[in-house]
Amino acid sequence: MEELNRTLFLWINATPQSAAWLLELATFIAKDLIAIVPLLIAVLWLWGPHRGIRTLVLKTGIALLYALAISWCVGQLFPHPRPFAIGLGHQFLSHAPDDSYPSDHGTTIFTFALAFIFWHRIWSGIVLMAIGLAIAWSRIYLGVHWPMDMLGGLLVGLLGCLFSQMAWPWYGEPLMKLLHQIYRLLFSLPIRKGWVRN
Fold it and tell me: Are 111 and 157 in contact (CB under 8 A)?
């Protein structure tokens, strides 16, 4: 498996001969495209087409918390150096030489993609999955992650969604009610003005 991981990495990883425009595009995708996650959370909560969409936002947020917790535990149990930390391939994105498995970026975006597939619409999940694959490619291409780091992020995201779905009947509705109360208190003026949804 490790040999396959290295072979795939070297096949995807950029080289000094790679086109400058492609390196710039990969850098944008690797660093900035993940911002779609908090942006999506805010937009759907504040201006979602119906109040039920907030259930999706909350379940997805909980899934992400589970996924990141699992990711941290896996990283502690199975530490794995980044490619540049062992001198393999070429690095085009500055990054601390910490453990790489599973990828936090991969875990985050794949958790969201899977959540939207399971709890929203297939098409929205597929769009997010495509973004996730682009982020995964870019971080491998720039030399800061292994392919298996991204596969690990996908699997951890799947577990996060599973745990969120299983735990929702226990605390989902009370938590949603509490968050609505806090939201209405903090956003009372924008709600009255009609700037955001009630």
Answer: yes
* pLDDT tens digits along 21-59: 999 999 999 999 999 999 999 999 999 877 789 999 999
CA distance 139 to 91: 10
Q: How many contiguous H segments (helices) and E segments (strands) does the chain have? A: 8, 0
- The closest of 157, 135, 152 to 144, measured between CA atoms, is 135
Contact 143, 91 (CB under 8 A): yes
Measured in degrees and rounded to the nearest 5, phi and psi for residue 146 equal -95, 155
d(CA 19, CA 41): 35
Find all residues with CB under 8 Å of 178, minimum gap 6, and list them.
none
Segment 154-170, tens digit of pLDDT: 999 999 999 999 999 99
Angle between helices 147-186 and 53-77 (to 10 degrees): 140
Q: Which two tokens stand for residue 147?
A: 């392919």
Domain boundaries in the chain? Answer: 2-193
Q: What is the pTM of this model?
A: 0.90
Evaluate whether the domain defined by 2-193 bears CATH number 1.20.144. yes
